[in-house]
Write the structure tokens for this entry.
Amino acid sequence: MQRTQPSTLSADGVLRLTCPRSWKEMTQEQLRYALHIIGCGMYSSVEGRTLMLLRFCGIEVTRKTPYGWACSVPVGSSDGEQHKHPFFLQSWQAQDMIKQLEFTDSYETMNVRLESIQGFRAVKLLLEDVPFGDYLQMEKFYQGYLSTKEQKYAVGLARFLYPYSEFAAGVTISEIDDAELTGCVMWYSYVKKRFSGLYPHFFKPIAAVSSSSANWLEQVNAQLRALTDGDITKEDAVKAKSCRRALTELDAKAREAEEFRKKYPNT
């Protein structure tokens, strides 16, 4: 994977390194690398952020010396060519620099996602235009993965998050790597976080999540009954509607129910 951020050296000899300060500032290559580091489970948060810093800034560490780590970075010159610029990096400097990458410790600000995996393109970031029926399947696979950590659930989630391709009909995602798995789970977690703010009456905190099919089916049936008013002939039409429109309606119904309970507490 190529390093994507160039370093610059000013006329007075000041070396300036460039590193993302948010998920949004990452290139797709940087994002995939970050997700790989997070998902492979081989590094602590500090170790992972240090590796990201080296990769994103293009820093090459050659050896340890009494003055710090001997490093070099490619920088441009006046003739348009690049050359390696040597410098020393001390531990305290690296510790200070990786603070800029603390955002990678959380999905809550992850307002980006891998645009494609294995030739399959992603749906919109906040699931705009995703059918409600597909959203229900995403929720099933997401909850299943949280409860079991089995990859098959993450693969199922990926198939709905990345449904568009130019492959022949019937070709679908069969397995995913560490970066893709982590990307799918963190992206959907971000979506859930945003939805909890957009639809606060419908999305309520729960103490525990069950992945049993009976539990999931009970939740789906409750949502479908709320949207169809118990009319089974409307179910297919409801599933075909935008999930954002369906969630807006479910949130309104949940708010009305809360208001009713407050007004008639003994009912």
Notes: The longest helix spans residues 178-198. Residues 207-211 have pLDDT under 50 and may be disordered. The two ends are 63 Å apart (CA to CA). The CA atoms of residues 38 and 79 lie 39 Å apart.
